Protein 1
Amino acid sequence: MANYGGQPIFILPEGALRTTGRDAQRQNIMAGRAVAESVRTTLGPRGMDKMLVDDLGDIVITNDGATIVEEMNVEHPAAKMVVEVAKTQDDEVGDGTTTAVVITGELLGAAERLLDKGIHPSVIARGYRMASEKADEILNAIGKDISMDDEKLLREIAITAMTGKGAEISKDMLADLSVKAIRQIAEKENGKITVDLDNVKVEKKGGGSVSSSELIQGIIIDKERVHTGMPKKVSNAKIALLDAAVEIKETETDAKIQITDPDQLQKFVAQEENMLREMVDSIVSSGATVVFCQKGIDDLAQHFLSKKGIFAVRRAKKSDMEKLAKATGASIVTNLKDLESKDLGYAKDVEERKISGDEMIFVSGCKNPKAVSFLVRGGTEHVVDEVERAVNDALGGVAAAIEIGKVVAGGGAPEVELARKLREYADSVGGREQLAIGGFADAVEIIPRTLAESAGMDAIDTLVKLKSEHDKGKTDTGIMVQDAKTGDMWKANVIEPLKIKTQAIKSASEAAIMILRIDDVIASTKKGGMPPMPDGGMPGMM
């Protein structure tokens, strides 16, 4: 509502809520910090789990930051921006979501303290932007080179990513499988290594121990063969991938066929049968022994295929077909008449297996596959889900390390060094931005502080000790959470990809800046909807 010459003018619909100035900033900061605080205790090897129960009573037990904020069903607009930070981190790196969210919350906390001192939000935003750019430069300088051949280092990255998760019991075995999977699908173009994580298909099945998880040099398809007369296993399989139906096409327009005597009907049925037989003959003449069809396979065609001893699967997903092409070297054919032997792929074995009561098809033993499958097992559904999340973190961490080619020590060591260097940088900047950069440095220290708290150590004493070590040039000194002491994280094999840190800082600072620059929140009710009521009930209700 505006007021001109004593006359009130309404510019917003009835029931709309408007918060302005310092109140808007304070509420947004509080909402962002609340999200960060909810995941902070999950950080590190001794991080605790959260149990999330939805309105249907379904339970998720996890300490994965991205899963927690996604399942929380956040309503506040500023809190949703913090959730976006976790999603971005998960999409870009696949790990480090808790770190990104916690730093975002702490940056907002540092900004609030500066606002209380009377510093303008634009000045804080400018200081944060400068600090973020400098942080990227500092982190790149302390990063150490890694290549795809450094199997030992890559394995340690995978183990670090899984430590503290539900998969910790079998982390050595799962780490080995994760490294093998990423090295298998990594591709080199113009001297640059690229890793498409979509080419690692993670399939989860309960009913087995975590140690029975396996990596398939090929693809697992959650389907079954179309006919029981077909072989259950085909060795040295020649695989045809069809994006065409093995059935009689219906006419484009409505058509009516009039048959006046039984002979005509017999000829009509025989013609249909011949057409299906020709389709099957095209498959047989190509030399294919296994067929994956993206569309339908007619019942009669299934019979003909089984008679020829051909293993067939219908209605395979498009994504599975693309992975099969990458794994087996087959070409996806859209017209049956064009199918030739050169279009076929190869797999040592194609087998239908029963896993936890479900039939699944294993296409394994492919020659240098560029798509692989990771079968994750676990005793219960909740265990399998958490192991899958841990495996995804490990895969993301190894992929990020290979792509960027740089790693850093873990245990809060890079954050302590970053804070130290940012304070040096702040002294050289001057002006009020100097205070914002100092606040940024304080915020980054939330990571070692949280790790110290979870290890039962005194956070202040630990930080003082770490700063002292870093001042002496021991930049890899961090917190050995399991032993509740400080030490050289590189020697302790606690290693993380550099991209986790750079992406977390970038996303966190951008989200914090965006939230800080908001000084007016206008929340309108939906058209026809009711305005919110302070007592939570209908007017006149008791």
Protein 2
Amino acid sequence: MASAPPQKQPNRSADSPTLHVTGNGRRASELKTVPPTAELRRQIRHRADDLCSQLDRSRPPARHEMETHARELLAGLQLPEEYLGWTMVALAYGFWHDQVAAVPHHRRLLLLPRCLRNEDTCPAEYDELGLLCQDCGACDLSGLRAEARRRGYRTLIAEGSPAVMKIILNGDADALLGVACLDVLEKTFDKILLAGIPSMAVPLLCNGCSQTSAELDWVRRMIETPHRPAEVQTRTYLHLMRCAAQMFEPAELARLVPRSHGAAAPAENDGEKVAIDELDPIACTEAIACDFLRAGGKHSRPFITLAVYDALCGGAGTAADGAEKVAQIPDAVKRMALAIEIFHKASLVHDDIEDDDAFRYGRPALHRQYGTATAINVGDFLIGLGYRLVASQRDALPAEVTADVTAQFARAHTRLCEGQGAELIWRDARQKRLTPLDALKLYALKTSPAFEAALLAGVRMAGPVEPYREAVAQYSRHLGVAYQIINDLDDWQDDQPNKRVTGGDVLGGRPTVLLALALQDLDEPDCRELLGLIEDRSPDAARTARVGELYARAEVYRKASMLISKHHRRAQQAADGLDNEPLRRLLHFILDAVLDRRPLAISEE
């Protein structure tokens, strides 16, 4: 068994200037210590396996349930709370072991950390998926890869979830096994486990981005997990997630939304600007719009519509044979789900113009690529395309269903515009005072309607809406508000693949709950300084840093995290009031998946 080099620190980050804010006010780093001895780790794993054997295996446990079990386990062993993160990984390992075993070896993906390599001698280079190991034998990576490949595994040496989720959603793997530090495991595995994708992981023994170490015996035992059927099949949203993602693949998108002007444009959707010079001018708008539809995004809204429809039709899509059931979802339902994503993408095009955001999906925003006028026109085209798609289902769905869904989409569209309009008017006003309640009302208009429309569209296509309307409205309101607050917090993190600009709310002069919380609690001189900094929209790193200092002084990150917890709890209560068990379970999943309640890393210094 490999041991941690003496110069390494235990797997915690309390010495870092970054503060990880949790719902109970604790530093998340204080809960991520690796138990120091192999015997203690073995003792926790053994107790975790015993506990998991008593759990309901028919559904994935929510994060808060796993946390509760982990706390009880540690209390029973009289161990400190600082081992909580590690214990939760051990519990997940025990819970999902039989489900991973039920997946053939060739359908498993092994995720390894590049920090196990020797940086001084490693000759490997990187591509978009990770490290291109040359199997030179100079570190443990080549040995682990060789053992996995002998069994038929697909292996990836990388960190982070985008590449992993792409492989899984593309249908190239059905189970994930990983080795990483606790921070990466929390970021990468939480949503995967929550969705019911069989996964197991072994935490590294120490922090750091180079020359770390792992319990190699445990890793090998994980890789050697034999293939055998599981006695109980855990429900999974994987098949519905794949369906939502695959609707945006070129062939399926073209089938569901046939082109009016021929085939895809040259250089379309490969990260480069659409080669509009090679197209008939009339075809250009459609080509740019379709390219933008496929450019990125989590596709959470179409997933919601598909999953709600499935839940109210019995929830067969989450069962063991769910792939077959999901394949039977009518094209009309898929096209309605596509339509709401099309409306969402149109709002992003217009929002980027109004805020003059430079990037979207890791590449220049449309107005930066093609000019503002063309981008506005593409956004308008997407709105028309969405309504055309909805209207075209009148022969596949009852007329009253199509009319009701159209009305819901239109209501969501107008409410979004009201919220965006209020933001724009505030931004251009001379008086910049803002209360937290004002900000939350604006969020309820800007973000909640799209979630409500996605939910109610799925409900209406499965049956009547009235039994669910009020609960869905309350749920959507709190989900949307919490989601927008998380976006505000994300705006102050360094890891922003979507827009690449830290503190973009400051640069754009936008009203946010962070600003409102600061104005509520700072003294008058600091408030005047903050408002002056917000008014000056020049891209100045020093100005942005000063706003961050004032935000930290007012403790807005902690307070915003408390607001997220509050709205999460209220959305949960709205879901709990529903009688339909598959729908109730789905709403809890959406809540945890969309809000992603992992601690946010934001500097308070």
Protein 3
Amino acid sequence: MLVDELDVPEEVREILRSEGIEELYPPQAEAVEAISSGRNVVVSIPTASGKSLVGYFGVLRAFSRGMRSIYIVPLRALAMEKYEELSRFGCIGMKVALAIGDYDIPPDHLRGADVIVATCEKVDAITRVDPGFISGIGVVVADEIHLITSPDRGPTLEMVLSKIRWLNPEAQIIGLSATIGNPEEVAEWLNASLVVSDFRPIPLHLGVYDGITLQLDDGRAMRVPRDRTVVGNLVRTTVEEGGQVLIFVSQRRHAESLSLTIGRVLERIIPEEEREALREFAAELERMGGLGKDLAKRAERGACFHHAGLTNEMRKTVENAFRRGLLKVIVATPTLAAGINLPARVVILKSFRRFDGWSNQPIPAWEVKQMLGRAGRPGYDPYGIGVIVAENGHWAEFAWENYIFSDVEPIESHLSSPHALRVHALSLIASRLAWDMKTLLRIFSGTFFAHTVGVDAMRDVLEEVLNFLADNGFVSERGGKYHPTPLGERTSHLYLDPLTVMYFRRAYESDHYSDFAVLHLVSLTPDMLPFRAGRREIETLYTYIAAERLYYSTYEVEEDTYFNAVKTAAVLSAWMDERSQDEIKDMFSVYPGDLHGRVQTAEWLIYGMESIAGLFGWRHAGRLRDLRLRVRHGVREDLLPLIAIPGVGRVRARVLHNHGYTDAARVAEATPEEIARLPGMGPKVAKSIVEGARKLVGRRG
């Protein structure tokens, strides 16, 4: 099918042609025809075969018919990427909105959007607050639909799709994935047409490297001497031939160390004319401070590391440099494989076992296929090679049998877990979509779990969940009918696990308050992913316990959970004490990206605790607002009057305060010239700060 034959406006065809797309790949054409029929569609085709364009066609087709769409993705970073790509079609008047923020209130700007790009958690939150929002949606694209099999976000994605089908049976569902082991079953669940293909525009060869020989699945065998990095000669050969390399490792420290040693391999082969561009790029990273300095040391040699500990700015900068061909190698943890478009000629999986808390276990085949499938860039590479590194003959044989020649695992539902049912049963009752066991089971009967196992399999655990919700005041039960209480309604709208609120109650029932005690409390909840406390840190963490009166004692909580929460509270306290990211990394071995993630979660949980406290009449509720703001901005209490000024963060606020500008009113009285003379303040920044302060004071006046 030619691009000229697509049922989209000419402006869209022009955009596609400008990107070199003149004709659709066979599986794309098949998927487009299926979508044009108006039926639900499940598309299971390899990475780099154009799944995104299929999803975009569904969105564009809906827009041309006056329908709105939701494009669901698993990660915020992927949401940003899809938002930017879909925004290209603004030329036809299509308005694209991004929804990845606060959980409890759907932003007003979503109502005017033609396409909403959102994480599944955000869509779930919207349906809790306003189920009617879904009635105006014509198309729902579920990207990376195989993540239903994830124990963490899978139940939410599954419930989102099930609720959309319950609330709006006419909405067209388009599921996209490269790794579905049981696509027929998924398509049957969604009553969808199925498009399955192994077509790839760029041939992909998979193989195993044992440190001596690279054996490929087409029978070719190449002797590649190992170096001290094991994979250095594989990298060198690829780069010398004009290709780029992605290397996946299991741990961050391995990504950092390997990228440094790989850089020493690259510096001998990168042409001089490229070195100046790399030095400029390294200087850009250096200016970011913190891990940017570590990245810069490697970048000037053509390699970088990539993991979730980087800030969003660092990650995006590294990814863009790789896309431009400036960086030759990225050594990453598997977070990079989760849907972000960053292919390379050669992808190397250096370690396929991962620590699960007890021992190193082989990772699932679908994860391996996701990583290796990134090999081969359409328009750049004549082929792609995915390589698994094996330590010895035993693991080489394991890799061939379990990864190269095996199919990916079938998708399985994790919706029957007590945590998932606790959260989603309350949301259905609080949204008035269900009111008794019968209606709950009717809604759950539309889930993938019910399709594969049967809804009766969750009846017993669902009864236990309903008893828990009733016994603890989240719902009231009268004559077999369930009604949300104010507590249950607020808990659901805040997107909190009811068990989290049970932790909050310990504080509400106490007359005691301290910032650290609250931070420890929210860090204990199931909604927080705490930092892991190492055995060597326990003695230091005891000093916090001795100095603070906490809401829970070491006898009431499992030991690891307790100390993980103490460490998390200590990190957040250091952040609020205006410690720099470098200092926090040195003190606690916590990376900036991880710090920012926990800061966002802690702010949300404190907001939830603050919002619910009024229902219990807790006299310390007012103190939570200041704590929340301090966590958000990473400041001491004396800077709170300054951070309300637009453009004033923790660093500028401290400079202003140290020079006598202790609140917005004093800043508003100053001239831009006076502020510009302060350290780190230029004329443009100073003018903006003074104007912002004057507007703020004017509003208050």
